[in-house]
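User: I'm new to structure prediction. If I give you an amino acid sequence, what do you actually give back? Let's try with this one:
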Amino acid sequence: MSETGHARNIERFAQLINFVEGYGADYDPANPAIALAALNAKKADADLKMDTVTDEMTTWKMAVNDRQEAFEGIRKLATRIVNSLEASGASQKDIDDARTFKRKLDGARAQALVDDPNTPEDESQGNSVSQQSYTQLVEHFDNLIAVVNGSGFYNPNETELQTATLTAYSTELKTQNANVAAAAVPFSNARIARNETLYAEGTGLVDLALLVKKYVKSLYGTDSPQYAQVSGLEFTRYKL
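Assistant: Good question. You get back a string of structure tokens that encode the predicted 3D arrangement of the chain. For your 240 residues, that looks like this:
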């Protein structure tokens, strides 16, 4: 279910509460879980859980964007490194090895494997194709650094091409990968907590809404205008 779908369930639950409040003293269920106070508490908890998901999603997306920005230009930089190595007088074997890792970088995916916040699965941890994940990009770049550093000839005057600068860049890329992974954990946990509040069997917001509908049906009757009010509120279940 999309984030919009979760929000719709909460919105309709709020409408349900408004109808219930309108029934006044008539609404007096024996089940404390669907008493008006309990319904308001569930609504407040659902709002809090949704806000937490939004906050954690924002943090995670910022980390993803920062990582994407950090990786921009890695292929052009690799091209410059290989060209500098070729101009240095390095052996053909070292040049060929460098070109191999450059090709692997060129074949890598331009964007991250992004976890879809509309699904419970963590797609960012899925298997990528053709060695195209961000982690593998760093691995290929590190291998390229190792080749040029070990050639005995690579010693460019350009600061941005020097091995110390390249190593520092590699460290930054690894930090960005770690930041995305770290941000994914509270985001995932927030969604789990949100889903429990909305969809736990028997105690979730959706199940409580259905119980309220049944109680109103029993209170006023199937053909009553009161039941017509609440019966039209649709709630969508989400499988935990």
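You can read the tokens as a compact description of the fold. Here is one thing that stands out. The chain has one domain: 3-231.
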